[in-house]
């Protein structure tokens, strides 16, 4: 059977360059102006295409696929406001370093701003959140204008190479004139084998790092979002066994060791209310800060390190370094494994009680967390404790924003899991779509843990034909935006429930029926403990379990947890102990 192409050369070259640059997955939203692209891409034997009606959902669906493949995935839309619906996913890709390729069809220039339908000013529309914008020139059916084809070829190739090597979103805008639906079984263009635009390697001078390492007795390693790099066991062992090092991780860091500090806020929050806050934070203040991975969730660690800054801060990342704590010393543009492989022989292990002292407090928080759970009723906190007891080995879990990912960072899974969250912009707008895109790409058991506002906001994410049978959703329904009850402000004002918490009486049962998703609900911890093991065992059909928790109790229990730790851990005696005295100032 012959391959089918649009007769428009630019549509052909976009498809062929996608293949040449290794793009195998393209998410298409329906439209007329993008018909030349749809015809060519959907019929290409080397490209897998997916139809997602809602462009906002399509953008995040593709973003989830990029998380899984660690490679560019393209989205294709028609002209007009359709393109603008990609913007939330584009901004998330920009701040999360994900290679999302946006390909938009456009009207010819002479039809822009003359009152023609479905037209906006599309060139450079994402200019503040894009790595490269390729604004192609219009061509015509069977055109032999080699200057236009040459320009469009080079611009498209540059955009795709930028996405690949710089790991971020790019935009290709292609104007098409009518007729849009003409087809051919012949490839009317010849595309040369184009050169790679891989940037050259940056020379690394680690002299200051080595000097700081070998003279610092208080070193803090802070790891953010880590999607794609498998940190070598040798590196993890070196970091976890050094008495001068504390390694703090979040659940999205996707690295683990029995000596790592995984519940950052459980350490910092109680200290904030202590009489000797200043002395304790000075004891924790690192001389040297080493960071790698992406963005950090914890506001408390950001506040702490901005106020109690280290003498030096080094960031290791092949792409970029954020000066989150306003004290960045040096950025090493390489992978963590490569960096430590290069410097390891020059690093000395020195005597220190930094880890020993703070590890005592870490272990106490774990002990009292379990005791606290046994003293409280059924709330979000109690549910998350049970969730992490029941997560299966190697489960992929996507956590929605805002409360879901914050609760997740207070707990530790009994088994190894892979954790993801859209922390680039930290919005609630595409959590469901991202998780489904990832699940489609991986075909591995994948669970989304989401709050009610995030779930209902992105309910169109369920509107597709690709949800795998082993995809699961855990929906925490506390009848509103519970995170706003945790934040400062008067919760009793009339406007609070309507404009911040946005209380509601919705549930997901009818949505599940419409989208043919198996539905279960739980209203107590006993029901949760009974249903969760069965929930994770079933893989015959997509399913959702809706957990109903008390709206007016969750914030009290969460804030009460930090107060409970403060009251039961004798910080004063620890502060006066020999271990803190031996920790250098």
Automatic annotation (TrEMBL):
One of its GO terms (molecular function) is 2-succinyl-5-enolpyruvyl-6-hydroxy-3-cyclohexene-1-carboxylic-acid synthase activity. This is 2-succinyl-5-enolpyruvyl-6-hydroxy-3-cyclohexene-1-carboxylate synthase. Belongs to the TPP enzyme family. MenD subfamily. Its EC number is 2.2.1.9. It holds the Pfam family TPP_enzyme_C. Residues 408-547 form the Thiamine pyrophosphate enzyme TPP-binding domain. Binds 1 thiamine pyrophosphate per subunit. It comes from Psychroflexus salinarum. Its cofactor is thiamine diphosphate; Mg(2+); Mn(2+). It catalyses: isochorismate + 2-oxoglutarate + H(+) = 5-enolpyruvoyl-6-hydroxy-2-succinyl-cyclohex-3-ene-1-carboxylate + CO2.
């Amino acid at each position: 059977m012959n391959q089918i192409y649009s007769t428009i050369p630019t549509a052909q070259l976009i498809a062929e360059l996608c293949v040449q640059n290794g793009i195998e997955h393209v998410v298409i939203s329906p439209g007329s102006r993008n018909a030349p692209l749809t015809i060519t891409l959907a019929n290409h034997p080397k490209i897998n295409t997916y139809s997602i009606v809602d462009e906002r959902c399509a953008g995040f669906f593709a973003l989830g696929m990029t998380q899984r493949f660690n490679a560019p995935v393209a989205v294709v839309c028609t002209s007009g406001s359709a393109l603008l619906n990609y913007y939330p996913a584009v901004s998330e890709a920009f701040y999360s370093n994900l290679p999302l390729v946006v390909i938009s069809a456009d009207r010819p220039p002479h039809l822009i701003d003359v009152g023609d339908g479905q037209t906006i000013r599309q060139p450079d529309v994402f200019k503040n959140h894009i790595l490269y914008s390729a604004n192609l020139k219009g061509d015509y059916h069977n055109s032999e204008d080699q200057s236009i084809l040459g320009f469009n070829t080079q611009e498209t190739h540059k955009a795709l190479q930028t996405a690949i090597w710089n790991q971020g979103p790019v935009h290709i805008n292609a104007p098409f004139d009518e007729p849009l639906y003409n087809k051919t079984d012949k490839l009317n263009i010849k595309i040369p084998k184009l050169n790679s635009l891989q940037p050259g390697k940056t020379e690394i001078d680690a002299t200051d790092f080595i000097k700081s390492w070998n003279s610092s007795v208080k070193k803090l390693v802070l790891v953010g979002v880590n999607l794609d790099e498998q940190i070598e066991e040798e590196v993890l062992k070196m970091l976890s066994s050094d008495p001068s090092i504390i390694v703090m991780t979040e659940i999205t860091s996707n690295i683990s060791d029995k000596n790592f500090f995984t519940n950052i806020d459980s350490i910092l929050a109680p200290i904030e209310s202590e009489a000797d806050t200043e002395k304790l934070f000075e004891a924790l203040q690192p001389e040297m800060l080493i960071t790698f991975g992406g963005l950090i969730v914890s506001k408390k660690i950001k506040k702490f390190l901005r106020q109690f800054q280290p003498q030096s801060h080094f960031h290791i990342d092949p792409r970029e370094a954020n000066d989150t704590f306003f004290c960045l010393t040096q950025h090493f543009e390489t992978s963590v494994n490569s960096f430590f492989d290069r410097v390891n022989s020059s690093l000395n292990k020195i005597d220190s009680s930094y880890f020993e002292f703070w590890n005592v407090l870490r272990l106490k928080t774990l002990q009292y967390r379990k005791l606290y759970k046994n003293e409280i009723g059924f709330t979000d906190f109690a549910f998350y404790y049970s969730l992490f007891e029941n997560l299966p080995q190697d489960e992929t879990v996507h956590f929605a924003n805002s409360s879901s990912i914050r609760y997740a960072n207070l707990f530790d899974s009994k088994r190894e899991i892979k954790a993801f969250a859209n922390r680039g912009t930290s919005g609630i707008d595409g959590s469901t779509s991202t998780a489904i895109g990832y699940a489609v790409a991986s075909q591995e058991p994948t669970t989304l843990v989401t709050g009610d506002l995030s779930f209902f906001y992105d309910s169109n994410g369920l509107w597709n034909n690709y949800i795998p049978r082993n995809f699961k959703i855990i929906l925490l329904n506390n009848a509103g935006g519970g995170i706003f009850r945790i934040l400062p402000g008067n919760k009793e004002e009339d406007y609070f429930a309507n404009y911040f918490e946005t209380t509601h009486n919705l549930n997901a049962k009818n949505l599940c029926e419409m989208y043919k998703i198996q539905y279960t609900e739980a209203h107590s911890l006993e029901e949760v403990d009974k249903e969760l093991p069965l929930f994770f065992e079933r893989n015959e059909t997509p399913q959702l379990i809706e957990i109903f928790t008390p709206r007016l109790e969750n914030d009290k229990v969460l804030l009460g947890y930090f107060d409970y730790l403060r009251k039961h851990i004798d910080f004063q005696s620890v502060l006066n102990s020999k271990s803190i005295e031996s920790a250098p100032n």
